[in-house]
Amino acid sequence: MHQVQVMSLFLFTLIGNVLSGSNHVFQDLKDREGVLSFLEYHAAISPSSSVTDKPLMVGLTLIQGADSSGAVCLDGTLPGYHLDRGSGTGKDSWLVQLEGGGWCNTIRNCVYRKTTRRGSSNFFEKQLPFTGILSDKAEENPDFFNWNRVKLRYCDGASFSGDSQNEASQLYFRGQRIWSAAMEYLMAEGMQNATQALLSGCSAGGLASIIHCDEFRELFPQSTKVKCLSDAGMFLNAMDISGGHTLQNFYSGVVSLQEVQKSLPSTCIDHLDPTSCFFPQNLVAAVRTPLFLLNSAYDVWQLRSSLAPPAADPHGTWKECRQNNAQCNSSQIKFLQDFRNQMLDAIKVFSSSNQNGLFINSCFAHCQSERQDTWFADDSPRIGNKRIAQSVGDWYFDREDVKAVDCPYPCDNTCHNLVFNDVVSNITFSQSTRLTSTPLNLLIIFLVLLCSIISTGFKFVR
Length: 462
Ligand SMILES: *[C@@H]1O[C@H](CO)[C@@H](O)[C@H](O)[C@H]1NC(C)=O
Ligand SMILES: *[C@@H]1O[C@H](CO)[C@@H](O)[C@H](O)[C@H]1NC(C)=O
Ligand SMILES: *[C@@H]1O[C@H](CO)[C@@H](O)[C@H](O)[C@H]1NC(C)=O
Description:
The protein has one domain (2-461). The chain contains 16 helices and 16 strands. The protein has helices spanning 2-19, 23-30, 32-44, 107-113, 175-188, 204-211, 213-218, 246-258, 266-269, 300-307, 319-323, 330-346, 348-351, 372-375, 388-396, 439-451; strands spanning 56-62, 80-84, 93-98, 127-130, 148-152, 164-166, 171-173, 196-201, 225-231, 291-296, 357-361, 382-383, 386-387, 403-405, 417-421, 457-461. A hairpin with a 2-residue loop joins strand 12 and strand 13 (386-387). One 2-acetamido-2-deoxy-beta-D-glucopyranose is lined by residues 188, 190, 192-193. One 2-acetamido-2-deoxy-beta-D-glucopyranose (NAG) binds at residues 317, 329-332. Residues 1-20 form the signal peptide.
């Protein structure tokens, strides 16, 4: 049920966009942005096999007055967050989760973002489900459930790191100011008394958590225990299947349009170009605060949008493999193993520091900390019998060193791999999806059929 509703929301958005207009809007949705939004949206409301309770829904707070320091979304609206207060032993502990959702690299696609929740708080959900690392239940989130847990919304298009504007298009690139205003606001809401804090984030938010990690540390006195977690934030500057640099070209647009260089650490900017410094491989070793990297070695967003995007695959020879890891042939697997090796190389120096943590599993996933089924459920992914929630907890609380790197694909049979279908009428998010014939569902089915040729579906297989 849940899953179907998620899909319908996505389809409503899609149809709304198609009806309202221009081709490029639709193209954007079909491209990496659409895939990513969908993935991340789904990440929060995922099928969960062991948990029957409805997730806690947490209301939105707009950051009143943020506009006085120019801290606004792409369209000039106020930024916002969702906060569930801690209790008991977690009363003075704070988890700040930075929302993800791709980036915008051109005026055109940033203008498009203004019409979505990725660029305007007018379109923010008024409530969000708190699952996985944000869950308030000990059996779903053993170490952080009673902390103050915040989800900071993402509406700037540059991982909370841009600082510029474009008058002609009425675009505000104010990620860095949103970051600062939000931290100031949360400090006043009680975070200044934190004895423990964890900055976290997934995807574009995982990259942001690396970029802002040391700044976060500096908000607190030395006596506060402060660490950072980046989930699916290790975007590699890798060569794509046609020998091009899809993601580097994309990042180059993001960084120059939004003037991200101002927010990037001087330890990188002083010897590399700004675009290179937006790649975490050039940042993580220099982060002084303890950092945990959680990533799948075959991150599906990177596979679909950076390594083997349709534009780099004119003959569609990667189409099947892009959608379903089980369809990759031996030479494609070899390419993916090479990508994994690049990932392991990129974190070599980082992992030599004993304050850092690692969980690099050999799954086809993206964002495993906010989904309940991947974070902490009976059948969650494991490395050496330890689930992600336990690994992150052991590292955060210094119970044990965690440097977990999985053996290469396909050795891991605990994965929750994501499988995509290009025909939406074949939606199966999970074994539990049911379609019943309520009027709403009939409407949804109609919409699904309408969209079946033009959008992307996706399901979860074990
Ligand atoms: C922080 O703690 C002090 C002392 O207990 C208290 O007076 C103050 O109100 C707290 N600040 C916030 C923002 O909660
Ligand atoms: C795997 O697929 C690619 C793309 O279709 C093709 O070029 C290659 O020859 C195939 N390799 C093997 C070993 O089948
Ligand atoms: C749905 O997709 C799966 C995997 O791609 C395929 O095996 C199955 O036959 C499809 N079902 C329908 C009804 O199209």
